[in-house]
């Protein structure tokens, strides 16, 4: 909660600085105001100029406050409201040219950021450049070279605003790409984890269902026990899926070893285990638990093996069987396991032949 409060405070400070930097330029509007008041009490034209200047200042301030208040400030669509707003500002500038002359060029300095900020990047760059060009061209055509300073200032404002838009857009694009990649990574994680969790659980349920079917006529009490275990496994599977979706599922190597013994025993496979869960580096126990679950599920499902072996070392786990061997193509489970291992900085080696298959994870 404190972090969120600090983030909001940082955003508020950033907006305050942006407001100050954009509104401080209103000082340049003193030029048309001074011109309108020359000679003492302003004439009718001078009074009209003052009103237009104040209206222009209000419109500029509103546009800047609205722009910097929006965190996703870069627009990709050209709207008639933005075009009409900019046209209104330009119309005020033109009217001021007739009322007070060349001093009205100071208003063009304000039109530049409005065009660059309110329009999409490419039209904004083009419109801002046109305003700068007009602000530079008029003094040359009118031979009022002293007013070139307005064009020079407008050029600097244009470069600063265009650079701000460019880098802001780049940051927003990078943020969107990162968000999309994060969503895709999370989808892949959920799909991989659900596959690993359900693959093992459904295999165990299938084995116990077959066993219960065989026991129904021979030993109804034993069949009931197996059916009760099936119910328990189903509930555990549902809980595993829920926790996997929430990102809370953590595999325990010791638990996986016990489950492996139970599953292969019911499948009629002899299992030999060399080492214990405590022999494995604690950093890799969760990863090795995933590897053990996937390897044992494949043995029970596909290998048709009579014997399996698990070897545990500090930085390595090896699971082998004497089944039909590896076909040469990896399923979703092994591909997901390889991604887990490589993401953790390890390697997965899969070898197979007529004498069985070996899965080895080395960290």
From TrEMBL:
PANTHER family: NITRATE/NITRITE SENSOR PROTEIN NARX-RELATED, SENSOR HISTIDINE KINASE DESK
Molecular function (Gene Ontology), one example: phosphorelay sensor kinase activity
Membrane-crossing segments per the record: 16-35, 41-62, 83-112, 148-167
Domain of life: Bacteria
One annotated Gene Ontology cellular component of this protein: membrane
Top EC group: transferase
Keywords recorded for this protein, A-Z: Kinase, Membrane, Transferase, Transmembrane, Transmembrane helix, Two-component regulatory system
EC code: 2.7.13.3
Pfam families noted in UniProt: HATPase_c, HisKA_3
Organism: Dermabacter vaginalis
Protein name, as recorded: Histidine kinase
Signal transduction histidine kinase subgroup 3 dimerisation and phosphoacceptor domain sequence ranges: 186-252
Claim: Transferase is one of the keywords in the record: yes
């Amino acid at each position: 909660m404190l972090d969120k409060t600090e983030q909001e405070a940082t955003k508020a400070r950033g907006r305050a600085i942006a407001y100050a930097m954009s509104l401080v330029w209103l000082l340049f509007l003193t030029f048309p105001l001074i011109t309108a008041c020359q000679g003492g009490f302003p004439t009718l034209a001078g009074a009209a100029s003052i009103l237009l200047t104040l209206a222009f200042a209000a419109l500029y301030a509103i546009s800047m406050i609205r722009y910097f208040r929006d965190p996703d400030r870069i627009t990709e669509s050209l709207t008639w409201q933005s075009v009409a707003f900019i046209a209104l500002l330009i119309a005020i500038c033109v009217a001021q040219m007739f009322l007070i002359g060349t001093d009205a060029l100071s208003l063009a300095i304000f039109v530049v950021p409005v065009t660059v900020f309110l329009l999409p990047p490419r039209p904004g760059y083009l419109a801002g450049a046109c305003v700068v060009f007009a602000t530079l061209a008029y003094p040359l055509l009118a031979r009022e070279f002293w007013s070139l300073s307005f064009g020079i200032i407008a050029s600097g404002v244009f470069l600063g605003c265009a650079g701000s838009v460019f880098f802001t857009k780049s940051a927003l694009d990078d943020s969107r790409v990162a968000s999309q990649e994060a969503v895709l990574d999370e989808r892949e994680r959920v799909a991989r984890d659900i596959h690993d969790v359900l693959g093992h659980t459904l295999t165990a349920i299938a084995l116990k269902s077959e066993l219960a079917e065989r026991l129904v006529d021979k030993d109804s009490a034993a069949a009931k026990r197996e059916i009760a275990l099936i119910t328990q496994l189903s509930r555990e599977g549902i809980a595993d899926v829920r926790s996997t979706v929430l990102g809370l599922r953590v595999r325990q190597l010791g638990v996986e070893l016990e489950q492996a013994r139970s599953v292969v025993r019911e499948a009629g496979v002899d299992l030999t285990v060399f080492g214990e869960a405590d022999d494995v580096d604690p950093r890799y126990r969760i990863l090795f638990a995933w590897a053990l679950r996937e390897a044992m599920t494949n043995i029970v499902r596909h290998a048709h093996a009579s014997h399996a072996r698990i070897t545990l070392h500090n930085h390595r786990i090896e699971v082998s069987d004497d089944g039909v061997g590896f076909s040469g193509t990896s399923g979703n489970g092994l591909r997901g396991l390889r991604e887990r291992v490589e993401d953790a900085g390890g390697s997965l080696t899969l070898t197979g032949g007529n004498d069985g298959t070996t899965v080895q994870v080395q960290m």
